[in-house]
C-alpha cells in the first residue's frame, strides 16, 4: 500500500504513511488509514477544481492582504459555515484560529515584501484557512483554494503552530498560479521541494535568522512530545542529514539528497541545493538565494524536472548577478553537489 498525495498538496511525507500502515500497532495503522482516506477525498476535489476553466480563489474585498479563518469543528464537510476571524479583527480565544491568521499574514508579508507578490495568485486573492479539520489527523493541506489544518494525532500537535507549515501550503498555491508543476514524478518532487524551501525561508526571515545558525528543519514546532524525546528535530530537513532514522513510528527518512538516490515519485522532497547555495553565500538565505529560487519557480513549466531547475536557476543567477559571479558559481556548485552539472556561462535576464 502506498500513500501518495498526487494532485493534493499535503505536509506529511507519503513515505511516513507507507511506514505507518505496516505498523504492528493497530492504532498507528488506523491513523494512517484515516489520513489516506482524507487525502483521497480532498484529492478528488482538487482535481475537479483544476479542471474548471478560469477557476479563481476567494477574491479579497481590498485587493490586498485579506485573511479569513474558519472553524471546521472537527468536520470534513460544510467547513466554511463558521467564520471565526477575518482581516483586522482582534484575537479570539481559540489559539489555532489566531495561529492560522498570523501565519497566513507572515507568509503573505514574506512574499510581498521580498518578491513584490500580492498574495497566492499575485492578484490579491483572499487567504482562506480552515482550522480543526477532521478528527485527530496528522496533516495540513492546500486544496486548490484554501489551506486546511488538522489538530494532530500521533505525529503532530496542531498543525497551525508552525510558520513553515503555513508557508509550505501557501507556496503550493503560488506554484499552482505560476509554473503549475505537475504533481507526479520529478515535477511533483520539484513542487514539494519549492514548498519546503519557501516554508523554511519564510520562517528564517520572520525569526531574523542569517544562514549561520539558521533553522533548516520543517515541522519542528508541531512534533509530538514522544518524537522530540527520541531526538527527532523535524519531519524534514534541507540539510544533507536524514531527519530521522529507524524511528519506530516514522521509519527512516527517504528524502533523496543526491540524484543517484532519486526515486521518481512525489516523495522526493529535496532542498539540499538551496541549503548549499545559502551556506556558500552567507547572510540571509531569503535574499539572493531566495530571489534566484523564486524566479526559477516562476520560469519552470508543467513537466519541468530537476535538470531543468538546475539549468534555469544557473541562468537566472548569471543574468541577475553576472556570468561567473559569486552567486552563479554558488548555484552551479550546489547543483553539482547533488549530482547535476550545468553548462557554464549561461544567463537569463
From TrEMBL:
<dbReference type="Pfam" id="PF02868">
    <property type="entry name" value="Peptidase_M4_C"/>
</dbReference>
<dbReference type="GO" id="GO:0006508">
    <property type="term" value="P:proteolysis"/>
</dbReference>
<comment type="function">
    <text>Extracellular zinc metalloprotease.</text>
</comment>
<comment type="similarity">
    <text>Belongs to the peptidase M4 family.</text>
</comment>
<feature type="active site">
    <location>
        <position position="169"/>
    </location>
</feature>
<keyword id="KW-0482">Metalloprotease</keyword>
<feature type="active site" description="Proton donor">
    <location>
        <position position="273"/>
    </location>
</feature>
<keyword id="KW-0862">Zinc</keyword>
<feature type="domain" description="Peptidase M4 C-terminal">
    <location>
        <begin position="179"/>
        <end position="339"/>
    </location>
</feature>
<dbReference type="InterPro" id="IPR001570">
    <property type="entry name" value="Peptidase_M4_C_domain"/>
</dbReference>
<keyword id="KW-0479">Metal-binding</keyword>
<dbReference type="GO" id="GO:0004222">
    <property type="term" value="F:metalloendopeptidase activity"/>
</dbReference>
<protein>
    <recommendedName>
        <fullName>Neutral metalloproteinase</fullName>
        <ecNumber>3.4.24.-</ecNumber>
    </recommendedName>
</protein>
<feature type="domain" description="Peptidase M4">
    <location>
        <begin position="94"/>
        <end position="176"/>
    </location>
</feature>
<dbReference type="GO" id="GO:0046872">
    <property type="term" value="F:metal ion binding"/>
</dbReference>
<dbReference type="InterPro" id="IPR052759">
    <property type="entry name" value="Metalloprotease_M4"/>
</dbReference>
<dbReference type="Pfam" id="PF01447">
    <property type="entry name" value="Peptidase_M4"/>
</dbReference>
<keyword id="KW-0645">Protease</keyword>
<keyword id="KW-0964">Secreted</keyword>
<keyword id="KW-0378">Hydrolase</keyword>
<dbReference type="InterPro" id="IPR013856">
    <property type="entry name" value="Peptidase_M4_domain"/>
</dbReference>
<dbReference type="InterPro" id="IPR027268">
    <property type="entry name" value="Peptidase_M4/M1_CTD_sf"/>
</dbReference>
<dbReference type="GO" id="GO:0005576">
    <property type="term" value="C:extracellular region"/>
</dbReference>
<dbReference type="InterPro" id="IPR023612">
    <property type="entry name" value="Peptidase_M4"/>
</dbReference>
